[in-house]
Amino acid sequence: MSVRKKQARAPEESQFPNADFERIFHPESIAILGVSADENAAGFGTGMLRVLMEMGFEGKIYPVNPRGGSVFGLEIYRRVEDIPDRVDFAVIAVAAKLVPPALEACLKIGVAGAEILSSGFSELVTKEGVQLENQIREIASRGIRVVGPNCFGIYCPRSGLTMLPGPDLSRESGNVAFLAQSGGMAIDFAHAGQWRGVRFSKMVSFGNGADLREAELLCHLAGDPETEVISMYIEGIKDGDVFFRELKAAAARKPVIIFKGGLSKAGARSVASHTASMGGSGVIWSSVLKQTGAVQVFDTQELMQAVTAFSLLPKKSFRNIAVIGGGGAIGVAACDIAERHGIDIPPLSGDIRERIESLLPRPGSSAINPVDVANPLVAPSVLKKVLLNAAQDPRIELQIIVSLLFHYNPYAIMLDVPIDKMVPYKELVEAVDDVINKTGKPVVAVLPNARRGPGNMDITSLIASTRQEYVRRGIPVFDELHEAIRAIAHMNTYYGRRENEKR
Amino acid sequence: MKNDKAAKIIEKAVKKGRKALSEYESKQLLAAYGIPITKEILLKDKDGLPKAIEKIGFPLVMKGCSADIAHKTEKGLIHVDVRTATEAKKAYREIMAGMEGFEGGVLVQEMVKGRRELVMGLTRDPQFGPCVMFGLGGIFTEILRDVSFRRAPLEAYDAREMMKEIKGHKILDAVRGMEAADEKRLTEMLISIGRIGLENPDIMEIDLNPVILSGPKPVVVDALVVLKQRPD
């Protein structure tokens, strides 16, 4: 059969089975299969019941266990069929061999989707495990969509669905979606987002991915109005063809940022040509991601940093930036990093430069761009004027302010004042926020910390508080300058391509 | 739209249980997809030599051509810059002697002049299927590994991007008195290689190296098409 013909048929083929994602992500009622009557039981079912209640899930929760009884004041139903209500979503946490009948029962009463937390399936690479997973797939194909098995399931702040152990995840909904097979990766990403100011629309850990998995979830998120940025951690995919198509379609609508783990050289395959020997899976993955218009990152930190920028900054590229900070070396480093990433730090125009010069302490300062404020103790009111002036240069699209707050330490000791009373960090953040509002140009904050030892916990705490102030106002914060610039460069890669294609 | 001529070449080789196409067959297959190749004639006996010389014209390149022989250079099976009928006869004898009885013939081809050598190719990724390669050719392919890949099918945009992506992309510009490469032609070639991969599942790998820029025009000078291995 000719492949070209297959492509012509692609639109019909791209139809995934029906899924009522509204009932899956925002259920009004949940059944939890595998809840113990003992409130202190260690099982996933009881754990999930507890964390859903702590998250303040507003819908109805129906615990299920053949032994019946009650837990946390809720009646435990002996069978799913006994629940006197429509059930939108089910959490299945029973032993692997009991999963197929449990899922079958959920299908029978019209549950839209189920997450299967239980393990003991294809991940064991045993005949029995694979067979059980095939049974799950077969039941799913008859009209109930499955997340998992062997997963942490769904976290959705708007509905209050959460992962284990996630009773303290944010209920604040945001514009970032995250997909991963790995549950551990998902929950850590959710926690990291919390203090970085990244808020999630939906997060799915799909484990073995017996039914719902990367391509179909991508397709859903591409059309999901709650999601503006899609992030993914990928180990393996099921079908390269379908994945490619859905990724390309999704990336055409919104940024998709991917950390692909487990890249290897061609070594494993025996090949005869130079072409094949040079086209190892790492090279091909990078090429495919570029081709689809997705953004590739190489570790979880970089993923979170990129997501922070994409989520909080205006949806465009930033080719010319201003960097304001203390210390000439920072400025030199900034220029080197920026150049490597194709970003310009152009000298500010003459009159702007003069105005900034008149504001700064002398000697040691420089108003060219990067602007070196010479002294880390320059008052927020002065920094504000510097930022306002620099923003007047029409070329400048974004500003980065690097604050070396740890340098206040010796003065705090000298004056015997706690450092968080010494540093005007709230005023600093207010000043930056004012600049953003007045100029309409984004400012990104960088808060390095050269003093992270156990004797400097007060500084660590001060920087966390400063970050919190920024995050509260939706201003992106990075630990290091190169991380900020790299994240912006990822935006340039994504939006640059869109701007290119329009031309 | 399946390419019948290409399909026949592959089918014949597969039936014989061969692991690869000969250079001549590889290029016939490329030509069937509109990819520019060297002007060449495959000789099975020396009587055809004068006519081949007449058709192609000096200087010539003469190569031993067999699907069963790799590393032609090392075995002395390549004679370049052959300028006279006497030289051609001598080259023919030496090549035939070097073939050590392998089935094949002598490939008489035009000597393409050009200082810029590129590589193009195809690999079949287990996950993403046929992927097309572009990069610096000749001896630099292995030394610099300055190559880029795109998954088939390629759009013109993809082909242009993969050419821009290699570090040595300036080789395609008008440099040192050489003309800028015919980007449109290169784009078409890369797209066609992707099509070959999509339409012929028996092809596992392709190496086109070198693809020489003759003035602005790319020409495939050497080609290897590796076929799917079947269990014996």
Concise summary:
The complex is a heterodimer of chains A (503) and B (232). Chain A is built from 20 helices and 18 strands. Chain A is of the alpha/beta class.
Description:
The complex is a heterodimer of chains A (503) and B (232). Chain A is an alpha/beta fold and 503 residues long. Chain A folds into three domains: 20-149, 3-Layer(aba) Sandwich (Rossmann fold); 151-312, Succinyl-CoA synthetase domains (Rossmann fold, 3-Layer(aba) Sandwich); 316-502, Rossmann fold (3-Layer(aba) Sandwich), CATH 3.40.50.261. Helix content of chain A is 43%, strand content 14%. The longest helix of chain A has 22 residues, at 481-502. By secondary structure, chain B is α+β, with helices and mostly antiparallel strands. Chain B folds into two domains: 4-36 and 113-227, ATP-grasp fold, B domain (D-amino Acid Aminotransferase, Chain A, domain 1, 2-Layer Sandwich); 40-110, ATP-grasp fold, A domain (Dna Ligase, domain 1, 2-Layer Sandwich). In chain B, 33% of the residues lie in helices and 29% in strands. Chain B is built from seven helices and eleven strands. In chain B, strand 6 (116-125) and strand 7 (129-136) form a beta hairpin. The longest helix of chain B is centred in the last third of the chain and has 17 residues, at 183-199. The mean pLDDT of chain B is 92. The A-B interface holds A 2-4, 7, 237, 240-241, 244, 269, 271-276, 278-279, 281, 283-284, 287-288, 290-291, 501 and B 1-2, 19-20, 119, 121-129, 131, 133, 141-142, 145, 147-151, 153, 157-158, 161-162, 165, 195, 198-199, 204-207, 209, 224, 226.
